[in-house]
Amino acid sequence: MDATRYLIRICASGGMERTAVEAGAVPQEQLQMLLHTDALERYRVPVRPEFPDTDRALCYLIDARSGDRELPMNFIGTCFYHTGCPVCGDLLLGFSGADADGTEIFGLTKVQSDLLLAWLHAQFPAFPE
Fold first, then answer.
1. Other Cβ atoms closer than 10 A to 61
2. Which element (helix H / strand E) includes 57?
3. What is the distance between the alpha carbons of residues 117 and 120, in angstroms, rounded to a whole number?
4. Are the C-beta atoms of 67 and 81 separated by less than 8 Å?
5. What pTM was estimated for this model as a whole?
6. Which of 38, 45, 94, 109 makes a 20 to 30 Å CA pair with 57?
7. Cα 95–8–46 angle (5° rounding)?
């Protein structure tokens, strides 16, 4: 069985990409490194596709200091946020831990990441690949 899991990066500059991570909870330090920050914020994606084999919440992570760092607005992140306030910088999508209020983030299987990317492209057709 393939232990590779994936986080989906949605770049503020455009494009989406799959980032390979190991199975299990992704270490906080790795998440910080992937977003080039020392402080993360986590939010639930309000609407998502149905995923096989999981009922975990789909979450996105952002740089908590993105506004201070004057990072560019992320269109998809801003849509997810639902407040009208911009979400800035790249974001990472992954599953929450079994405790949805906890801080653990887990990657998606290849099938789940394919499904999520297809769903994102259907929801945001003008967003570059």
1. 24
2. none
3. 5
4. no
5. 0.91
6. 38
7. 50
> Hey, what are 83's tokens?
């407040």
Chain-centroid distance, C-alpha 5: 13
Full pLDDT tens readout for the chain, 129 residues:
578 999 999 999 888 999 999 999 999 999 999 999 999 999 998 888 888 788 889 999 999 988 788 889 999 999 998 887 899 999 999 999 877 667 899 999 999 999 999 999 999 887 665
Q: Which residues contact 91 (CB under 8 A, 6 or more apart)?
A: 9, 10, 35, 60, 61, 62, 74, 76, 77
Residue 52: alpha-carbon gap to chain centroid: 18
Please give the structure tokens belonging to residue 12: 């503020």
Give the burial class of 9: count Cβ atoms within 10 A of its Cβ; 0-12 exposed, 13-18 middle, 19 or more buried.
Answer: middle
Largest Cα–Cα separation, the chain: 43
